[in-house]
Structure formats: structure tokens, C-alpha cells
Specification:
With 430 residues, this protein is mostly helical. 60% of the residues lie in helices and 5% in strands. The chain contains 13 helices and six strands. The strands form three sheets. It has a two-stranded antiparallel ribbon.
């Protein structure tokens, strides 16, 4: 593993906070919100049942038009990635060194490369069937481009770039005439995003459904989602108000986004796979509400119970450290400790999201696409994933319960891994 002094950064960097190395404490609300997003991602991506009707509504992604809790998971991850940019890079803004810029570019390229490698593994390394785009690729493109823009340009220019990006999406998605389909046709088989992906990557590199969920064009509006998260991060970084006022401002902005998105949905359907403008706004607003909830539960409530904790300047971004000390009763202290214990698994997941996602996807591909079991009479191939689910969880009468229990097994597995790493203060990032 490369050391901190190494000239070439490693593919995965490991930060070890030993007792003799002082690290600024991480912001609790952001970690817990990110961990909650990872929890939902684990439950959405690790269902045992193959039929959507056998998956609980909360964990079932909408197949085309519509909106549900599972559809907010990926946007929230992008939203929090955008929020974290000013918290991590504020001191480098307008004066970033080439070394720091190189670090951001390499981080983005690593995410894209790992995502492409996973997609290649999923098709048994058959390059002719490779779908180039994917979740990690989208995160890498959105995070990398937005982080570089944040470092280089003013807030006003950043807003302008975001609006232009949204305008480009609308011009192509609703204005481009697609041969054999027409203009502004938004079906899975016929839409301008799918047409653009076929032109850029080739028809062999587009799924049979016709639309890549993380296609090039919809990445434009995913960038807008990330930029809206950055807006919330700028409000947090400025810290011109107390925690209750911060929560109120975040909530009002979130409500405005949701309301505007719902109003827009009367003309443009909510659609995650196309990442439609209405979906972009509603999902960003819901992501903001998630942050508000965890700001209240993970920061404001413990402070009310036992009083604000003194810490570094970074930690005080979310801590109202100027408030007078609170004389807390033993009951309040026990309640605060209970809350901390309940939220601990979310903090663990939120501190190692890259590791969880990479290992989770690797296990899925291994069991779904690589390993197969010969079962039945006459013998037939069955993926190890579905064989494992059928043998150990398929006996339940309610398949939605069985599928959720299967996902719970994965949640426990990855939470245990992250808990062990957190015990030794090991955090693995790209």
C-alpha cells in the first residue's frame, strides 16, 4: 500500500486515526445521513426476490414514470456528495494547487474505472456487451466536474453553469428529433437520451430495455442534483445562524424544491431513469428533508439533552458551541447515550461508504453473474444468489418479508465490517 509520501496515490487510500494522530472530528449529521442512505441502498440493491411485486414498496424502485422512497436513494447520495465539497475544499477555493486538483481528478477517474470494471465483470469480460455507464461512473463525473468548478469559479458562475447544464438536457431530451421515434417521445425504447447513448457507445453497449439508467444525457440533470447539494453545503459552511435556523432554512428550501418539482410534474413526468427535471427537483428536496431530520436527531436533540460539545472549528459548523452549558440530568444523559448507540451503525456505514458500495457490488456480481448452481430435474443453472435466497429465505409465505430479511442479512454483514473498521479508526476512500 502506498504511503502518504508516495508520489503515486493508491487506488484505495486508507486513513488510520491512531491515538497519536489528531484528526478533526467528522460532522455527525452528515455521516449519519450518509449512513442512512447507505442503509437504504443496501436494502434496495440486495433484495432476494426477482419480481417487483415480491419486494416491499419502500425498497422497490419505480420501473418508469412515478416516484417512491427507493427512488430517492441515489439522488440523496449525490446530494450529500455535493454538500461535502465546500466542507472539504473551502480552504482551497480559488487557490488550489495542481496537486490538490490532481487529487480530485484521480478520485473521479478511479470511480469511473472501478465502475467500468464492474460492468465488464458482470458480462463475463465480454467487451462487446459492455455497458460503459453506471452508478460509480455517474458519481465520478458529477463529483469531479462540480468539485473542479467550485474551486475555480464564483458562486454566480456555478449557478449559471448549472442552469446551462439543465437547459442542455431539456433542449436535447425534448427538442431532438429521434429517427423512428419523433420529438419529445419519452418511452423506455424511444427517447433522446437512449438515442444519444446508442450514437456515442454503439447499440451493443446499451441495455435491451433501450435506456441506460445512468446515461450520458441524464447525467446532466444528476449534476444539477449534486449542485443543489453543494448549495446546502455552502449554507452550512457559512454558518450564519444557529442550528434551529439552519434546519428551518434547509427545510424551507427543500419544501420549495419539492413544491416546484411537483408543479413541474404536471407537464413533465417524474422519471428516475431519465432523471427528468421534475424528478431532479423533488428528489433534491427529499434529500434536503433527510438532512434536516438527521440534523435534528443527531445534533440538535443530543445538544438539547446534554448541552453542546466543544470541538474544532470544523465540528462547530454543526454545533451551536456558543450556547450556554446545559445542566443535564442523568436521564437526559442516558437518553443521549442511547441515541448515540442507536445511530452508531449509521455512522459506521457513513464513514466507509465507498468500501461498502464496492464490496456490496462485487458480492452481487460474484453471486448473480459468476457463480451458478445446477439444481432441479431436469438440471438447470441457477445463480448462487437466487439459490441462496430460495434455500434460506424462500420458505416464508410473504415473499416481501422474505426478500426484506434477505436484505437485512446484507445490512448486518456490511454494518459489522464497518463497525470493526471504525473501532480501529480505519476509513477507506477512493
Amino acid at each position: 500500500m502506498a504511503t502518504a509520501a508516495s508520489r503515486q496515490p493508491p487506488l484505495l487510500s486508507v486513513a488510520i486515526d491512531a491515538h497519536h494522530v489528531r484528526k478533526p472530528p467528522r460532522i455527525k449529521s452528515v455521516d449519519v445521513a450518509r449512513g442512512f442512505t447507505m442503509l437504504m441502498m443496501i436494502y434496495v440493491d440486495n433484495q432476494g426476490a426477482s419480481s417487483p411485486n415480491d419486494i416491499a414498496f419502500a425498497f422497490r424502485e419505480t420501473e418508469w414514470n412515478g416516484f417512491g422512497p427507493a427512488d430517492v436513494v441515489f439522488p440523496t447520495f449525490l446530494f450529500i456528495a455535493g454538500l461535502a465539497i465546500p466542507l472539504a475544499s473551502a480552504k482551497h477555493r480559488h487557490k488550489a494547487t495542481w496537486l490538490y486538483l490532481r487529487k480530485i481528478v484521480l478520485r473521479s477517474l478511479k470511480m469511473i474505472a472501478i465502475g467500468v470494471l464492474f460492468n465488464l465483470w458482470a458480462v463475463n469480460f465480454c467487451a462487446s456487451k459492455l455497458v460503459v455507464m453506471g452508478v460509480l461512473q455517474r458519481i465520478g463525473l458529477c463529483y469531479g466536474s462540480l468539485a473542479l468548478l467550485y474551486l475555480a469559479v464564483s458562486d454566480r458562475t456555478l449557478i449559471l453553469v448549472t442552469l446551462v447544464t439543465a437547459a442542455v438536457y431539456c433542449a436535447i431530451m425534448y427538442g431532438l428529433h429521434v429517427p423512428g421515434c419523433g420529438r419529445a417521445v419519452l418511452s423506455a425504447e424511444c427517447n433522446a437520451g437512449a438515442y444519444l447513448d446508442r450514437k456515442v457507445f454503439g447499440s451493443n453497449h446499451v441495455p435491451a430495455s433501450g435506456t441506460i439508467p445512468e446515461g450520458l444525457l441524464s447525467t446532466c440533470t444528476a449534476f444539477v442534483t449534486t449542485a443543489l447539494g453543494l448549495r446546502f453545503g455552502l449554507v452550512l459552511q457559512a454558518r450564519k445562524q444557529t442550528q434551529p435556523l439552519l434546519a428551518l432554512q434547509w427545510f424551507l428550501e427543500s419544501a420549495l424544491l419539492v413544491g416546484t418539482g411537483l408543479l413541474l410534474s404536471t407537464a413533465v413526468a417524474l422519471n428516475k431513469k431519465l432523471w427528468s427535471p421534475s424528478f431532479t427537483l423533488v428528489a433534491a428536496g427529499c434529500s434536503g428533508v433527510v438532512l434536516v431530520v438527521w440534523l435534528i436527531l443527531a445534533d440538535m436533540l443530543p445538544d438539547w439533552l446534554v448541552g453542546p460539545q466543544q470541538g474544532t472549528q470544523e465540528q462547530q459548523l454543526l454545533l451551536n458551541a456558543d450556547a450556554p452549558p446545559v445542566k443535564s440530568s442523568r436521564l437526559r444523559q442516558l437518553t443521549a447515550e442511547l441515541l448515540s448507540a442507536v445511530f452508531a451503525p449509521l455512522r459506521w456505514l457513513g464513514r466507509n461508504p465507498a468500501l461498502v458500495f464496492i464490496l456490496m457490488v462485487a458480492l452481487e456480481i460474484l453471486l448473480m453473474d459468476t457463480l451458478h448452481v445446477r439444481t432441479g430435474s431436469p438440471p438447470r443453472d441457477e445463480s448462487a444468489w437466487h439459490y441462496w435466497y430460495r434455500r434460506n429465505f424462500g420458505f416464508k409465505r410473504d415473499q416481501r418479508v422474505a426478500s426484506s430479511l434477505f436484505a437485512t442479512y446484507h445490512f448486518v454483514l456490511w454494518t459489522f465490517v464497518c463497525g470493526v473498521l471504525d473501532t480501529y479508526h480505519i476509513y477507506i476512500t477512493l
